[in-house]
Every structure is written in structure tokens, then in C-alpha cells.
Amino acid sequence: MPFSSGTYSVVYNWTTESAAAPIEIAKLDQQDADMAAALSTCLLRDGTGLPTASIPFNSQRLTGLGDATAATDALNRQTADARYLPSGSLATDRLLGRDTAGTGAPEALTVSGGVEFTGTGGIQRSALTGDVTAIAGSNATTIANDAVSYAKMQNVSATSRVLGRVTAGAGDVEELTPANLVSFITTADGAGSGLDADLLDGQSGAFYQSASNLNAGTIPDARIQASGVTQHQGSLAIAFTQATGTIASAQVPQAAVTQHQAALSIAASQLTGTLADARVAQSNVTQHQAALAIAASQLTGTLADARVAQSNVTQHQAALAINADQTSTDYADDSATTYTLGAGDAESIRRFTSASAITVTLPSSTPSGWAVGDSMLVIRGGTGTLAFSSAGTIRSPGGSVITAQNGKCCVTLAASGVWELSGNL
């Protein structure tokens, strides 16, 4: 079509007809019809050609537009500013609205009462200050430290109450009664809690029962029991009127008798109990030691063979007879490559002469004939290495192997299955 989207295109330019007239009537009719159709779609300035659809202006302005008077008139800038802007302009941080009662022209409204402009085209709640704070535009509020006074707290329901929690588990604060507090304290009572009800100034009753802790005042007469006098007995004088009760026969210790000891006589009737045979310590026998005789029936237990120290044998040494089975084996050479300590080895010396490796086994328990503290001297006499082993415990500062020929090691039973090694290790 020659007229489309506001553009008119000529179909015929009459070049052919100018060279060979006449013009064909059909062409003239077609071109006239195209022009009539184009004129029929145009807006006329006299207002007789009305639009039949919405008209886009392609971002162009309508200039020279008259002021609007009717409700359906378009607004030009002048009419819009006069109608919607107070005094024709709007100051910063204002909203258009109306606060005056009744209908009327728009008014420039300010914001307050906790609302403010953001500065970026928005409105927000103002920052909160005081006891409860929040930044502007945020709904997250915070109670500052130390901001809430006692007066602003909930009232306590009655006197004699403290705040805490007695219900099991975490939860709300509760009012506690004196009974609740007593229950708390008694629950915490115990050694090391500092709340023991039986302590006075941090001391138990036993502290005040000790005379050594007395530092003031005077002890009344007849308040000291004889058994309670433990110091200065030699110079202490107690009148009979101050002593309570009766001093039983033979109840005064010898150390407490300071006068007339030489003439003191204690009758057998004053002794309580019976002196058992051989129960008098040698240190207590100060007279007639030469004539002292102790019958075999008065000795308890049995003297083990070879357990009497030589220093204790002071008479008839020439006539003393000790059987061979009562002495320990003093020294022996041994060519074996394995050996286990046993009966007869306590307090002995054994020299191993093998050129091959030698293992000496220390038992994991106390061997027969051994006692804690017994020892044995082991000598590596040959060229073969000599090592100690045990399923028990070996304690040594330098290892468990005798390092050189003719090296020596003292093996001591420290406890059952525990062996101490010392020497050339």
C-alpha cells in the first residue's frame, strides 16, 4: 500500500506516459484512491479528524499545549505545577499530600515522629536512642549495658525474696524464698565448699579441743585431767584438790615420777596384766645382764639357719658349729650359657666362663630362698656376652648387658619380681 505507518510512497511517476500519452485512467483512479486513503487517516488541525487508537509520540514533546480546564483535558507543565506543587515548587525532604481538613490543593508535608528520609529516595524509621537503641532503618533493637534501672524492672512480689532459679534446667528468672536459699547452701555444704556449718572461724571442733591452740584466759581449778598433762611434767605441781577422780595404781608413767625414785617400790599387786615371756626389750634391762638367762621356751618363732650375725655371737665362738647346708654358696664358676636365679643363689657369687652368649634369667616373682634385699654378684669371666632378662621388672641406670670380660653386676631383689642391676653395664 502506498501509505503505510505514516509514510506515503508514489506508485506511478508518469515517465512512460510522458513519452507516449495519454495516461491510463485505471492508473489515475488507483493513485487517487491511495491519496484519499492516506488523507482519511490523518489528524486534522481543525479537530475534525479524530484519532481511532492510542497515539505514541516516540519520546517527543507536545509543545504549545493550552492550560487544562476540563477534567478530561491533558495537563501541560504549567497547569501541573500549579495544581500539584505548593507555590509551584517543592523543597528538599518533603512529601506531597494534604494535612488540612477537607479536600483541597496538595500540600508539602514534612516527616517526623521517628520517620526520616533516607537521602536515596526512600523513607525509614529514625535511629532509636535511650535505654533501647537501634540504628536508622533497622528493626533490631538493643538494650545497652547498665541502661535498665531497678525502678524499670518488674516489682518483686513480696519481701524476703531474691532473684534466681530453683526449677531444674535453664529458664526464666524466679523469686526465691529463704527456704530455697537454705536448700542451696545445704546442698553445697561439704569439705572444701567453705560453707560447712560445723566450722567456727574456719576451724572444726577438734581445733578448739587442742590445748596447743589456747592463747588467752585462765583454766579453772580441777579442769585438767591427769591424762591431758603432756608437757613440763617434771616441774608441774598439781594439788590434790585440783585433780578429779582417783589415780589408779601403776597408772603413773615412770617419766612422771621425779622424786624418791631410788626408794620407789611398786608391789606386784599394783601391776595390771601379765608380762609375757621374752617381752622385755634388752634396752630396758640395766642390771645383772651377765646373769640374764632366757629359756628357749620364752623365744617366739624360729631362728632361720645362717641368720645370726657374727657380731651377735660373743661367747664360745671356738665351739660354734654351723652345718654346711646352713651357709650360702659363696662362689662358683659356671660354663653354662643359660641360667635362672633360684634357691641358694642369694648372697652368692657366680662367674660365667663360656665363650658363647650367656643369658641370665631373673624370675618374675620371689625365688625360693630369697628375701627382699638379698643380692647376688654375677661375673662375666668368659668372652661371651652376658645379658639379663626377666618377665618381671629390671631397673638399671645403664642397660642389662655386662659390657666387658671380667665385668661385674650386683643383682638385688627390690620387690617380688623387681630386680635392681648395678655395675659394669
Write the layout of secondary structure elements.
Layout: E1 3-4, E2 7-8, H1 15-19, H2 25-40, H3 77-84, E3 95-97, E4 107-109, E5 115-117, E6 123-125, E7 132-133, E8 142-143, E9 162-164, E10 174-176, H4 178-188, H5 205-209, E11 331-334, E12 338-340, E13 348-352, E14 358-362, E15 375-380, E16 386-390, E17 393-395, E18 401-402, E19 408-415, E20 418-423
Parallel strand pairs: 11-13, 12-14, 13-15, 14-16, 17-20
Antiparallel strand pairs: 1-2, 3-4, 5-6, 7-8, 9-10, 15-19, 16-18, 19-20
Might you state the CATH topology name of the domain at 328-423? Answer: Jelly Rolls
The CATH homologous superfamily of the domain at 328-423 is named: gp9
Outline = elongated
Widest β-sheet, arrangement of strands: 11-13-15-19-20-17
- The overall pLDDT average reads 78
Rg over CA atoms, rounded to whole Å, is 63 Å
SSE pattern: EEHHHEEEEEEEEHHEEEEEEEEEE
Q: Report the span from N to C terminus.
A: 124 Å
Number of helices: 5
Give the helix proportion (percent range).
Answer: 10-25%
Largest sheet: 6 strands, mixed
CATH top-level class of the domain at 328-423: Mainly Beta
* Oligomer designation: single chain
Question: Mind telling me which CATH architecture of the domain at 328-423 this is?
Answer: Sandwich
Unreliable runs: 315-320
Q: Estimate what percentage of residues fall within beta strands.
A: 15-25%
Number of strand segments: 20
Which class of secondary structure composition applies to the elements? Answer: alpha/beta
